[in-house]
Amino acid sequence: MTRRKLVAGNWKMHGSLAQLAELDGIAAAARANRRVDVAICPPFTLIGAAAMRGDLAIGAQDCHQNAKGAHTGCVSAEMLKEAGASLAIVGHSERRTDQRESNEDVCAKARAAIGAGLIAIVCVGETEAERDAGRAVAVVEAQLQGSIPAGAKAAELVVAYEPVWAIGTGRTPTTGDVAAMHAAIRAKLGALLGAEADAVRILYGGSVKPSNAAELMTVANVDGALVGGASLTAADFVPIIEAAA
Ligand code: PEP
C-alpha cells in the first residue's frame, strides 16, 4: 500500500504575525514537492491569518470536544474549520501532561475534529521510564485503544508516534525501534479499524531535523513526520519536506 507522506509542523506556543512570513517559503516547497502533503499548525490566534496567506494546509494544535457551549477559553473544531483549518492535532503529550487529557478526552476531541470535517492527528507515545521498563508497545497500544474513534476512516485520521523522551531533546529512537513501534501501531490499527488501517498514515515525531529526516523517512510504516522546533523556519522545515518527497 502506498501512502502519501505528510509533513506537519507544530509551532506550539510560538509565532507571531511577523513569523507568518516563514509560510511563504514553506508553501513554495509544498508546491515544488507535490508528492508530499504539508501542513503547519500555528497557535489558535494565527490560524485565520495563516489560512488567508496562501494555499498551505493549516491545522490547530487542539480542539474542544463540544461544538459550542459554556467552555471559557476553549475553541471548537467547527470554529477552527471556519477559521480556515483543515487539520487538528489532538492528544499531544504536552497536553496529556499539562492539561491531564485522558485517552477518553483525546478520543472525544478526535471525534469532534472529524465530525467538523478536519483531519485528526492523534498523538501517542511512551515516556522514557515506560520504555526502560519494556512497556513502550503496551503503553502505545493502550493509548490507541482509548484514543482512536471507532469507525474512523483513513482519509480523516492520522496517527503520530511521538516518544515523549524524544520531543525537544535532540534524541531519537534507533530506526529499528521506530520500525518496530510503527509496525505495532499498524497492527493495532488493524485490530481497531480493520482493512481501513492499511491506508492510515503514521507519522514519526520527536527531534526530527534536516540531518535525520531522510533516514527516518525510509523506515517502513513511517508515512511522514510531525515536527516541532524545526518547523518554525522555512530554512529548517523545507529540507524535511524535501526528505519526505
Ligand atoms: C512535537 O512537539 O510534536 C515535536 C515533535 O517536537 P520536536 O520536533 O521539537 O521534538
Topology:
Layout: E1 5-10, H1 22-32, E2 36-41, H2 44-53, E3 57-60, H3 77-83, E4 87-90, H4 93-98, H5 103-115, E5 119-124, H6 128-132, H7 136-147, E6 157-161, H8 175-193, E7 201-205, H9 210-217, E8 224-227, H10 234-244
Parallel strand pairs: 1-2, 1-8, 2-3, 3-4, 4-5, 5-6, 6-7, 7-8
The chain binds phosphoenolpyruvate.
Quick gist of this model?
This protein has ten helices and eight strands.
Polypeptide structure, described:
By secondary structure, the protein is an alpha/beta fold. The protein has one domain (5-244): Aldolase class I (TIM Barrel). The chain is built from ten helices and eight strands. The protein has an eight-stranded parallel β-barrel, surrounded by eight helices. α9 (210-217) packs parallel to α10. The radius of gyration is 16 Å and the shape is globular. The two termini are 17 Å apart. The site of phosphoenolpyruvate has 13 residues, from β8.
Order of helices and strands: EHEHEHEHHEHHEHEHEH
**Count of spatially separate domains:** 1
Helix fraction bin:
40-55%
Number of helices: 10
Structural class: alpha/beta
CATH-level-4 superfamily name? Aldolase class I
CATH second-level architecture: Alpha-Beta Barrel
Work out the strand percent. 15-25%
CATH structural class? Alpha Beta
The count of β-strands is 8
- Give the rounded overall mean pLDDT: 98
Distance between the termini: 17 Å
Ligands (ions, cofactors included): phosphoenolpyruvate
Spatial strand arrangement across the major sheet: 1-2-3-4-5-6-7-8
User: Which runs of at least 5 residues are low in confidence (pLDDT < 50)?
Assistant: none
Radius of gyration: 16 Å
The third-level CATH topology is TIM Barrel
